[in-house]
Amino acid sequence: MVEYTNKAKKYVLTPKRKHAGRAVARLNKSSLVTEVFKDNTTKQYVIKHLGIIVRKELFTMCSEKMGSILNSKHVSDLKVFTWISY
Question: How many whole angstroms separate alpha carbon 53 and alpha carbon 44?
């Protein structure tokens, strides 16, 4: 059961979410992630938001300001790629 001190509401955790609630209470991040990914609805929500984060990161990495090799459209640029320059 989750109680809020500033409100008179009480929420009873469903059996599905009880394990996740315990993981939160114990501050066990590994168990929390495991429990989140067992629930398909929550898993899809997390995957969607991770995709948004990755898309933003890739957009930043491939921007003109960064001068990334990922921004290049020519095969010849990839042939002369060296890790030292990046």
Answer: 14
Residue 2 and residue 11 in contact, taking contact as beta carbons nearer than 8 Å = yes
Q: How far apart are CA 71 and CA 22, in angstroms?
A: 45
Place of tokens 């929390």: 32
Element (H or E) spanning 25, and its range? helix 15-26
Helices 29-38, 15-26: crossing angle, 10 deg rounding: 160
Contact (Cβ atoms closer than 8 angstroms) between residue 42 and residue 51: no
Q: What percent of the chain has pLDDT over 70?
A: 66
At 54-85, the pLDDT tens digits run 998 888 877 777 666 666 677 777 677 666 65
Q: Give me the pLDDT at residue 46, please.
A: 92
pLDDT score recorded for residue 69: 63
**Residue 65 to residue 22: CA distance in whole angstroms:** 45
